[in-house]
Amino acid sequence: MQLEQLTYTEEQIKQAIEEAWQELLQEADAEDYSLEEYLEHYRKYWDEPDFPNDIPEIIMRAVEEIVGRPLSWYCELVRDPAGFTGEYSFVVVDPRTQKCLTYREYTSDGVNVHRFIHVAGTVVDYEDIVRLVTKLLNQIQSALANA
Amino acid sequence: MEREKIIAALEAAFAEISGAVYEDEPETFAEFLESFKKFRDPETPVYWIPWTVEEAVEELTGRKFGWHEDAFKDEWNYTGEFGFICVDPETLRCLTAERTDDERCAVSVVFPILSIDDAVKAVEYFLQLVQQA
Fold first, then answer.
1. Average pLDDT score over chain A
2. DSSP bridge pairs for A105
3. How far is A94 from chain B (nearest CA, A)?
C-alpha cells in the first residue's frame, strides 16, 4: 500500500496492533502473554526506571503496518515533576521526502499562528492505543491530502 | 554570525520567556544555566532552556519554525541534554532529519545545554541548518 492510498478500518488497526505485539514478543524471545496482561503490568509499573515501555513501538509498528512502509519517528514520554504522565508525544517524518507528517498549524485569533509538529495522546488501556494509532493515521492522511 | 549577537538574542529571548523582562533585577540566561548546572533542581522550569534557543534562532533568522523539544531525565533528575526537532512550515521539511543507513532517518538532534557556550553552539547549529535548507 502506498502512503498516497491510505485506507484502514478499526478491525485492521486492531489486527496491526496485535501483530506488532506478537513481533515484539518474538524479538524479545519472551513467553507468550497477551497485550492485555502487559497493559496490567504497565499500569502498575510504568514509572519504574527498569520497566520496558513498549507502547511507542507497538503504536508505530501498527501505524507502519497499515501505511505499508517504514516511517521515521520520535516519541517523547511526557513527564511532569512527579514522573511519567502516561502521555506520549509523537513526531512522524516520511523518510523518503523528510517531510513532517504530523505538522499542523492554526490561528486562534486570526493573528497568532500556533504550530505543532507532534501528535499526543495518553495511554492507559487497549482502547487508548487504538485511539492513538487512529489519530496518527488520520493526521498522516490529512498531511498527505494537503501536500 | 558573531557570538555577541547570538548571546544578545538568547538573553532577549530568555527575558521574554522567563518574564524577567518585568523584574527589577532580572536573572540572565547565563545565570539561569549556571544555577541549573549546579543544582539540577527537578522543579526548575527546564523547558525555558530549549524555548530560549528556539526563540533566538527565530529572531536571528526572522522566520518561524515548528519545534518539538524534549528535556532528558535520568532516574532522578534532568541530565542537561535536550532533544530538538525543527520543521520548516513552508516546505514541511524536517530540518533536523538525517539519513541513516537503513530505510529510515533520524529526526532529532541532541545537545547538552549547561552553559551559555553550549546554548550558543546549539543556536549556531540551527542557523547553519536553516542556511543549508
1. 91
2. A115
3. 8
